[in-house]
What we know:
Order of helices and strands of chain A: HHHEEHHHEEHHHHHH
Strand content of chain B: under 5%
Shape of chain B: globular
Number of helices of chain A: 12
Distance between the termini of chain A: 44 Å
Number of strands of chain A: 4
Largest interface: A-B, 29 and 26 residues
Number of helices of chain B: 7
Shape of chain A: globular
Strand content of chain A: under 5%
Largest sheet of chain B: none
Structural class of chain A: mainly alpha
Strand order of the largest sheet of chain A: 1-2
Largest sheet of chain A: 2 strands, antiparallel
Helix content of chain B: over 70%
Structural class of chain B: mainly alpha
Oligomer: heterodimer
Amino acid sequence: MDYAIESVVKIVVVFGGMLGAVAYLVLAERKVSAYIQNRLGPNRVGPWGLLQPLADGLKFLFKEDVIPRHVNRFVYLAAPPAILVPALMGFAIVPFGDTMTLWGHEVRLQIADINVGVLYLLALASLGVYGVVLGGWASNNKYALLGGLRASAQMISYELALGLSLIGVLMAAGTLQLDEIVRQQSERTLFGFLPGWNVFTQPLGFVLFTAAAFAESNRLPFDLPESEQELVAGYHAEYSSMKFAMFFMAEYAHMITASAVIATLFFGGWHMPWLVDPGSSSIGASLLKLLAFLIKTGFFMFLFLWVRWTLPRFRYDQVMWLGWKVLLPLALLNVFLTGLYLTLTH
Amino acid sequence: MEQIFFFVFAAIALVAGVLLVAFRNPVYSALSLVAAFFALAGLFVLLNAYFLAAVQIIVYAGAIMVLFLFVIMLLNLGHAGALERVAGKYRRVAVVLLAAVLVAQLGFMAGRHWAGTPVSDEAPLFTDNVNAIGKLLYTRYLFPFEVVSLILLVALIGVMVMVKRDRGGGESRSR
């Protein structure tokens, strides 16, 4: 019973935190884009525009909800939840901190530590494409359909690179559990001074995974499925009001989960090097570990925004070329090199 | 609790399986197959086969069915009767083949049941599926495993050859 209550509390906290983070990431996107383009960005609602997400949310809720007459109603209505739900589920296995002692309870800061952890993430990543494909098809509109087709081709292509780029990390760690991977990174030191993060042992894997994660979350430079100039927003062209907002939220939730996973797998998760002893479980140390996780995740969320406002969009054949002829062979090379190293040293 | 979940997942799988055949619209059929795959993944979780459940979602729901949808959309089969045009000739062959497979499977299960032997003689896995399956694949089932990978490789090369021949062997940059 205690376990059930603890889990429910964690789910509510993480879910709420996730939705809040999505809202403020949208604001951050607008602010970052503004500073990159030498503008001010939203600054009217609340101090520094900090209440803008509230205004946006209210606006989404009160907009007229249009269902065009030419759509396939059932699939059209099923598509937005089909994309938002997997996007929000991914965070469930990310360890956002070490154990924390609260009111005499040992609380693990992770919702579920399942033993196929990384595979669960890949499964959810591969489901994200359904909302896009179905939304594009059900809209019964040629631009939306083209967006849906592009999305399915792109996501299938980059899923391979996404999975294969992780194999190196998993081979070295010998486990699929994210918590265990973080613990291993926090317990070793490289060359006497570097923290034992996987980014130093698997630099190629990190670059490939980050590129594939950008493609999987349909962010620039890989936002071909919704490219505004040619496809007038692609698969969500026919969606309005809260249904459009669900597509929008899913994209930001994907970014948050991808950032958290990059931080966990390659940057030691909650590990704060030099300052906090990884074994310590005092309340201060646990809070610092949580902070370390938030800082790392925050940096990668910023990276997503930064790249969007810096790089132009690829051409479609370039996307396919990059996925199949660059990322995939390099990921295989990474697996081979890791295997070679492990065979020679063990 | 587990029994309730079993009946829920089993019911979903059966209903989705029937709907798959009953729908006239291929997109709906594909979606009900996805629902059936999810229900199967749920059943695998109840059997402690977490690895199988995850792979079921990644491979079948996440990759193969997306490709199916892709093809349905690309050939614009998304309305009733369109399948007729494409699959009409081969329908009888497919029915006979699949019926044979179904009868063989049912016969195998029924035979096991009446002979009193359990369906599988493997000890159930409770922890660390991935490790156990990996070990089995590379020791006891090494030969079938390698044969499967060879068959897949042949299929891959076959696809390449056919695509190249259709285009006259020329460089194909855009499509």
